[in-house]
Design brief:
The complex is a heterotrimer of chains A (281), B (158) and C (290). Chain A contains 11 helices and 2 strands; from the N terminus they run ααααββααααααα. Chain A is mostly helical and 281 residues long. Chain A folds into 2 domains: 169 residues, no CATH class; 77 residues, no CATH class. In chain A, a hairpin with a 2-residue loop joins strand 1 and strand 2. Chain B is globular and about 50 Å long. Chain B has one domain. The mean pLDDT of chain B is 83. At the A-B interface, helix 1, helix 4, helix 5, helix 6 and helix 7 of A face helix 1, helix 2 and helix 5 of B.
Chain lengths: 281, 158, 290
């Protein structure tokens, strides 16, 4: 049952993108998301699509993995699209009964819809080409300057690492408890929402108790090995920025510049000036 | 945070949160946001380690499930603020599940409206999320809180 | 017969790159009231098999007939199956969750939809049957009990459903010798009181040899042997080649045989071993005197 869930999104590979430092990838994802909100018209999306195509192509992540990320919010996309199409006021195009599709509505629907799709695809790429453990290391390194302000970034990263490590263990526990209670007649599947909610108690209470028992045992084990926390700890695989990370940083700046320039209309101005120049010559 | 037990309680809460998010996926995600893992937001009643625990849980569960980084950051912040609120309200058990309903309603609802561009009025988005949270936090979380009362010993930090 | 399994096939994670065949063409029969043991190395499919018997897992192909009704067909209600076949998992004390012992034991009967009076009667009966005093512990929190008591209460929770067939997966795992003996006694009582069919998965060959009248031997998903304890353990070398142990006395006899001592193959327990060794020694004594 639960055994069949493949953990996480990571698609193993050795591409240039896979090998980038996790910090660069995290910062890229932020900039990418911000860039989507700077875009004003469809030409901006062309830049984004080309960029995404390059990343997906070079990292060799299969298309169906990418599209898997859209499944959970498929309904939201449809919903957004349809409502935008019918509810926006403006110059009418098609009339179906009392529902009107306006020119603005159509444009809005595609614009918002595209933005949503690009948002999900682009941000899911981060988890597709970065292992969870690399992500936690990256987050720890990025947050470590904040330690001066009291943020316990090492402890947080430790929590993340341990949490990740125990996910398979707790998944197995959940499976076992579910089956044991089902053998006593528990039913987690049928009934309305309130009934199903109540039926989870025989699952959650024993799961909790098991989980906390694990925590107590591990605490003792770590203490016995003189773990004292703190950021003076060294690690086996250090994170080092390489030349390719520098290249990536430059590419990110290039991308952002392109987006901003396009959004301000400077790009089309430039293109028009170039066309005029060619015509004049 | 010097205490190892504190760190491990937080880590295991984070782990449990993530496990519940992925193990009971059909219930969560999609248009109806009943995230069973949100029932765990009552844990600050029992231990302050739940504050970083739930926050990290939200982060980690988004790392391993396909929902995107926006949900990860905003959801985690909403969870963190809620956990602090729940901890502060721990003298009144009936109020403990309330902060996550409010913060997620506002922040995630806002995210759906502004970032996802869902074309419903802002308040509708917020109420929709709050409703799902209500079911998870009061429908599952509150009874869970009552049941765990008998097992208070396991939450001891010293 | 009560249980009939025909050509059971089961595949884990089918369609995924790491799919594996967990049960391959398993067929056997069990009569009502039998005390059956299931043995096999780790990963041989024991847990998978027993989870099929009460409907928790569905086979890829094959049939499971309980009292003539095929439970793998879609028409049978799960609650009907679980009413008749109780399954106690390994370390069952980890499934306790209710506020009081009474309420936890009542969980199963309650899911069967019985009346409150019937539930209370069954709860008391089950707790007494597992050797505990209802008045003493009925209202206590399960968390306060000792490990051995918790396990008994967990088993009581399944017995309270009054199944005709009781399956136990490693019921003595992690117990100290006294609790180990107590729990086995308890299972024997359950067996004799209601003529409940018992199926027990265990690595403890001594227990299996002592208690069961039929043994199913699994190896890598296949059922390789079915027989009485005497039949199964007399094949000492084969059993050992499967990575399994022997009952202690049988093991001793086998080691002696390997060193050339002509002891019988049918020794299962300490008393038989003692008699056999005494007989042999008398023989040798006779030869020396002569």
């Amino acid at each position: 049952m639960i055994r069949d869930i493949t953990l996480g999104q990571y698609y193993p590979g050795d591409s240039w993108f896979h090998r980038l430092d996790a910090r660069v990838k995290i910062i890229w994802t932020f900039i990418y998301i911000v860039s989507l909100f700077l875009i004003r018209d469809f030409w901006g999306y062309v830049i984004v699509l080309v960029t995404l195509a390059l990343i997906i192509g070079i990292s060799r992540v299969p298309l169906n993995f990418i599209l898997k990320g859209l499944k959970p919010i498929f309904l939201i996309i449809i919903f957004t699209f349809v409502i935008n199409m019918f509810m926006t006021k403006g110059t009418p195009l098609i009339e179906i009964g009392f529902l009107t599709i306006t020119k603005e509505g159509l444009r809005n629907a595609f614009f918002m819809g595209t933005r949503l799709v690009l948002l999900i695809i682009g941000s899911s790429i981060l988890t597709l080409i970065t292992k969870p453990i690399q992500l936690t290391d990256g987050i720890e390194k990025l947050l470590s300057p904040l330690q001066k302000f009291g943020l316990p970034s090492h402890e947080l990263a430790m929590m993340m690492t341990i949490a990740l490590r125990f996910i398979p263990t707790l998944l197995e526990e959940t499976d076992k408890i579910m089956k044991a209670q089902m053998a006593r007649g528990a039913d987690f599947e049928s009934g309305n929402i309130m009934r199903r909610a109540k039926s989870l108690i025989p699952l959650l209470v024993p799961l909790f108790i098991s989980a906390f028992r694990i925590a107590q045992d591990l605490a003792m084990a770590m203490e016995a090995r003189c773990y004292r926390g703190g950021s003076h700890r060294t690690r086996m695989n250090g994170m080092r920025l390489r030349k390719r990370d520098g290249v990536a940083a430059l590419l990110i700046i290039l991308y952002l510049t392109l987006i901003i320039v396009q959004a301000q209309g400077i790009l089309s101005l430039l293109m028009m000036s170039v066309i005029q120049l060619i015509q004049a010559a | 945070m010097r205490n190892i037990k504190y760190l491990l309680q937080a880590a295991i809460i984070a782990s449990a949160y993530s496990v519940l998010t992925i193990a009971l996926m059909p219930f969560s995600y999609g248009i109806m946001q009943v995230r069973v893992s949100e029932a765990l937001t009552i844990l600050p009643y029992y231990t302050p380690a739940a504050i970083p625990g739930l926050f990290v849980g939200c982060l980690v569960s988004n790392m391993i499930s396909p929902y995107g980084i926006l949900d990860m950051i905003l959801g985690s912040i909403a969870t963190l603020i809620a956990a602090i609120g729940s901890y502060l309200l721990r003298k009144r058990p009936i109020l403990v599940p309330l902060p996550p309903v409010i913060t997620n309603g506002i922040i995630i609802g806002g995210m759906l409206y502004y970032a996802y561009g869902i074309p419903m009025p802002l308040y509708a988005c917020m109420l929709w999320v709050a409703l799902g949270q209500l079911i998870a936090c009061y429908g599952i979380g509150y009874p869970l809180l009552q049941y765990l009362k008998r097992y208070k010993k396991i939450f001891e930090l010293h | 017969m009560q249980i009939q399994v025909k050509n059971l096939y089961h595949i884990y994670s089918e369609g995924m790159p790491y799919e594996s065949v967990s049960l391959e063409d398993v067929s056997f029969e069990i009569e009502k009231g039998e005390f059956v043991g299931v043995i096999g190395h780790t990963g041989s499919g024991k847990s998978t098999l027993i989870q099929h018997l009460n409907g928790l897992l569905k086979p890829k192909s094959g049939q499971i007939l309980i009292d003539g009704i095929d439970i793998t067909s879609g028409e049978v209600k799960m609650s009907d199956i679980r009413r008749r076949i109780g399954l106690v998992f390994q370390y069952p004390e980890y499934q306790l969750f209710e506020e009081t012992v009474h309420k936890d034991v009542a969980f199963g009967p309650m899911n069967l939809g019985l009346s409150q009076e019937e539930i209370d009667i069954r709860v008391k009966k089950a707790i007494e049957l597992v050797g505990l005093n209802y008045d003493e512990i009925g209202q206590r929190s399960p968390f306060e009990l000792s490990g051995g008591q918790k396990r008994r209460i967990a088993i009581a929770g399944v017995i309270a459903m009054e199944p005709e067939i009781l399956i136990l997966d490693e019921p003595i795992a992690g117990l100290d010798p006294k609790s180990h003996a107590d729990i086995l006694e308890m299972i024997k009582v359950i067996h004799s009181v209601n003529n409940t069919t018992i199926i027990i998965v265990s690595h403890n060959m001594g227990d299996i040899a002592r208690l069961t009248n039929k043994i199913l031997v699994l190896d890598s998903g296949k059922l390789v042997m079915v027989g009485t304890p005497a039949e199964v353990f007399s094949q000492a070398d084969y059993i050992e080649s499967l990575g399994l142990g022997l009952p202690p006395s049988a093991h001793l006899m086998n080691e002696l045989r390997k060193r050339g001592v002509p002891v019988s193959r049918d020794i299962l327990n300490i008393d038989e071993a003692e008699e056999e060794l005494y007989r042999l020694l008398k023989q040798i004594e006779g030869k020396i005197d002569a």
